[in-house]
Structures are given as structure tokens and as C-alpha cells.
Design a protein that fits this description.
8-stranded mixed β-sheet, EDR2-like, 10-stranded mixed β-sheet, alpha+beta, endoplasmic reticulum, PH_domain, 742 residues
Amino acid sequence: MSKIVYEGWMVRYGRRKIGRSYIHMRYFVLEPRLLAYYKKKPQDNQLPIKTMVIDGNCRVEDRGLKTHHGHMVYVLSVYNKKEKSHRITMAAFNIQEALMWKEKIEYVIDQVCHFCLVNRKLFCHIFKFLSLYHRHQDSLVPSGQQYVSFEYKPGMDVERTASSSDHESPFSALEDEDDSRPDLLRRTTIGNGPPESIFDWTKELGSELSNHNSSNQAFSRKHWRLLQCQNGLRIFEELLEVDYLPRSCSRAMKAVGVVEATCEEIFKLVMSMDGTRYEWDCSFHNGRLVEEVDGHTAILYHRLLLDWFPMVVWPRDLCYVRYWRRNDDGSYVVLFRSREHANCGPQPGFVRAHLESGGFNIAPLKPRNGRPRTQVQHLIQIDLKGWGAGYLPAFQQHCLLQMLNSVSGLREWFLQTDERSHPIRIPVMVNMAPSSLALGKGGKPQHKSSHSIDQTNGAGRNSVLMDEDSDDDDEFQIAESEQEPDTSKPETVAKKTEEEPALDIDLSCFSGNLRHDDNENGRNCWRISDGNNFKIRGQSFCEDKRKTPAGKHLMDLVAVDWFKDTTRIDHVARRKGCAAQVAAEKGLFSLVVNVQVPGSTHYSMVFYFVTKELVPGSLFQRFVDGDDEFRNSRLKLIPLVPKGSWIVRQSVGSTPCLLGKAVDCNYIRGPTYLEIDVDIGSSTVANGVLGLVIGVITSLVVEMAFLVQANTPEELPERLIGAVRVSHIELSSATVPKLDSD
């Protein structure tokens, strides 16, 4: 029997075609290339009930929290990207157990990819050696005799024609160094992604207050100021241009404190709305579940207990969407924003407040004296509505501070709790019903008891395998991003001459339907972005991890098209008269980046980069002529949002991302061009952020830089392929393209 990586008892949950669902115990075994489960612990040559071969195309989907048979379980799903119908879905009663399985399975996937890719590289080296050997033999052949020689050419696919692996090439130790660093996080698919209306303020705020080094600069003195220290918390007030805020909303405020508990323990309390919440949240009256959207998103009803002249000021309530995720550094993010819902209308005797943005960022700190420590940030931006909020500023301030004090409530709750060794389980929430909101005598709500998880399950059997044929969303993407270390010192590095073909191209012959305008205040237009706005790996990155301003681009951006259609727009380079076709007529090479935006109307923003030639042996040439697996592991995007609301800037962030691992990329290699179709809709995470951006796209200025990631000293320094700045785009300006058939 193969070496076992991980094993344990699980519970099989399924649905009969006719009748109720059922639960069975099953024993799961993870081997170096196989995941299987049995009716009992396997002995001798016992056959498994179901198996899945683990290869580089396998992915582990995080489906979040779901309720089954009165249990709140944390769900994972393992499937093959090329055969999404073949999957194994598993869950656990506590997050730690599920994350352990996720970590082990991802480890096996990485090991398989490492083995395959190293073998492929060795195979390529053998072909190169044979090619040189035959050439040498040819030179020794007497006249009149001929040997058939074999020549290996770069880009020749000796093992397979294409690949869509989601794991980075591990040909060198340096190539994986980003994954081993704690401040570089892997993005994973999280439910169906954040709802389009919810804002992730933790993207740039979360790590700046921690003890970890970070390149994020959103939390700086120009954005926040310390308002006061209260109950052991630091209370910050937002400092921002008023143009970005609705006039009815207050400035955002947040409390930052340290709690002596694990992230999982704090997350469990933050997510609960049972009787325990009364012990640490003084602003909580009661709460109910309105709708469970997916494992990471739910719509909740929440009544506030603000206790400010209750005889005069009416009580407040909220209906909001809650989204959460766990990051690979062990931190948790819980985001809130108000949402209207048909089953949660205005309640008699209550004023419906509007939560513009809010939530918790729960990040681990280094233990002290053997006790866990966690930094908790709680942000709130709320309009309490009613006359009290408009005419009594003290009312708004009092209520905000009362809600933010929940962080100190968490700290005190854990300081006074000794026994916390039991597995962390999240209690099931009570569904909202008309009777659950009935008012009793004196206007007080009548509470229904909240049912917690059934504790009769064995502690050692705390995982569940759920129905593989469920109707849950099958989409899943694993994306990987980097948080680049901040470097303030300039570095002057001599760029590789072989990466810099001399560019002297007449750009007047190129055109696109999106206007080119170098005016700083231009609208619905594009211009070339300054490469020094982006920091990339310098010549000495292997030794000191320093980043340098990118400087000059490798290619010229000559045109931008803005298209729309009823279906997804693929292979735009085949369109007659496009910039890529014009470049081909002039003997130039083009890189076409087609960013595909899904929706009821499909949009595509197409960037055309042009150069005179591909330098043989350069990193960019290897990328163009390489296979999809190499391209996916190297194509990097660096986004910036110079102008836009702080919430949008935080959601988009400025963290470099390996595009081929974040979303599905389709590469089309033509004789004189390479087109990259970037399907944003393939990633639920990216799609959720996109939903936020599309709604306010006319108010945004966005910059994007594309480059090929350098992993070895020979490939350094990195060079930008090109960078673009698009300003205040109008959706109505997009046109329907006329594409020629292939």
C-alpha cells in the first residue's frame, strides 16, 4: 500500500432519489496520488467506495459554512479542473479539522506538480543533449554518408500540448520562495465571492497595524487619525475627501485591540448570534438569519441596543449582508453592508439604519508567555437615520463608540474564560420568520431559543462527507497573489540588453474605439501609465528581496478597444483591421490582452502591445513560445486605483497577482501575435470584486501593469510588458465588434 499522507474517520452525507437524506461513517485515506474513502478502516486489499486521482489539475474548493441536519459544518470540495463533475465533497464540525484536510490535499497536489514538472525539465535537457550529440556526430560523418539529426527547439512540447495546472513551476528553489513567505498569501475561491455591493476594507487596512511588514499603504496618517484611547482600545477616525462619502453617512471609525485568544475562537463569537453574544456585545439586542446565500455569504437581521434616551429616540435595526473568508495566514475577515430583502422589511417601532460598510479583521499575532494573541479590528460606517442622527451629533458618536466597544468586550470575555479546549464550533442561527419578530408586551421582542449544534457526535468523528451530486455551485478557482515587500530605497540596475529591442514604431497607424487622451483629467479614455508607478523585482531580489521602480516598458501600447456583446468575446485578434492585424502587416509582433467582463451584457477591454521582434532566449520570448502551464505560472498583473473611493481602492488593492492562477486564461498563439483572453467570470472572488467596480466605473481611474514574473537570478530584473491607465469609462461607449470566423 502506498505511503499514507493523512487519514481519518469521516461521515458520509447523501440524498436518496426518493426519501430523506442519510448519514454514514466513512474512513478517508489520502495517498501521494489518490484520495479515497472506505466503509471501514481498510485492511489488506480492500477496495474503496470512491476514489479520485490527485494531479496538477485538482483543486480544493472552500465552500464555507452550511447547515445540515442541525449541524453547522465547514465544507470543502475536491475536484479536477478538467472533470468538474467528478468531485469529493467533505466537511467538518470545526474549522481546524477542515483546514487540516485542505492543507494536506494541497500539499499532495503541489508534490505531484513538482514531480511532473521536474521530470519534464529533465526530459527537455535530454533532448537538448541528444540534439548537440547528433550535431557533433554529423560533423564527423565522412563525405557521402548522412545521419538523421534531431534538433530540440524552445517551446517544443515534448510531453503534452497544453496544460492548465494551477501550481507554479518549481524548477528552482527560488521559484517557490514566494509561497513559503508568511506575508505572501494564496487566494482561494470563497463561496460565490463577495456580493457586488460589499466592500472589503481589510485589503489594505488589515496588515498595516499588525507587526508584520507590508507594502500596503492605505492605513496611513493621511487616511486615519487616532481619535482617542478607550477601554484599552485605540479608536481611529477616517480622514478622507468628502467627495467620496455620501453626505448622509458619518465618517468611518474603527477600534483596534489585542485579544488573548486564537483567531478561530474569536471568529466563532463574532459569527454567532445566540445568547453568548449578550456577554461581550453591549449593542446587540437580537438577530436572525434571513437568507443563507452560500457558505460564506448570508443576509441577517440585527436589532441594536443603543440605550440613548430610549424614551425619546426610537430603537434602530439593520438588514445587512455578511460575507466572511479565512486567509492563508490564519486571519479571518468578516464584512458587513446593508441590503434590502423581501423577507426583511421595515419593522414597526424601529428605524432602519443603513450600514455603509463595516466588519471585523481578526489577525494572529505572536504568542506571549505561551498564550495566543490576536489583533481585532472593528470598522463601522453607518447612517443611523432619523432625526436624532441628523440634529444630534452626540447621538451618532455615542452609538458608534458603543458598537466599537465590542472589541473590549471580546477581550474581557476571553480573559474571564478558563476552559476553551473544546473544538471551536459555530452555532446554527435561527431562521427569520414572522413570529420571530413579534413584539411582546411593552414593545419588547419575543425571543425564540437558538438551537446549537448537536453535541452527541463523537469528538474523533467530527467530519462529514456530503452529497457529490448536490446542486451547489461548481465554479472554483485558486488564485495566488503576492504582497510585495515595501522598498523605499531607490536602486539603479543595468537592464539586460537582450530584453530591450530598440523601439522606433510609427504609432499613428494604430487605432481603437476607446479614445487616447494624455490629459490628466480626461474621461472615457486611456493613456500609457508611467512604469515608475509600479515596483517590481530588481536585479538583486534573490539576495535582498528589494523592489525597484519598473521604468521603461518592453512593448508599446498602441490601441485599446472597448467591446460589448450578448456572449463572451473570444479571439479578438482575428478581427480585420484591429491593431494586431495592422502590426502583422508591418512585420511587428503583438501581445493582445483581452480582459473579459461577464454579465447580462458581456464586455471586453482589449489592450494591444506591439514590439519589433522577440529577443531569442529572453524571458518574454520563453513566455510567448512556452506552454500554458509555464504562462499561467508567470503572467503577473499589478493593479492600482489612483482615483476612486477608499472602499473601492481597498477592495481592488495593489497586490500583484499571478493571473493564470487567479482566473482562467486562454492563450491563442498566432503567427505574429499572442492573445491572452482573461476570463474574469471564471473566479468567483474576482467576479465579486468586479461587481463592485462595474457599479462605479465612471468615477474610477484604474492602472494595470502586465509583466512576466522572474524567478531566478538569470531572469532578473523583471521588466514590464506594458502598463495602461483607463479613466472614467462609460459602459454605453462600448461597441459590438465584427469578428471574422476562424
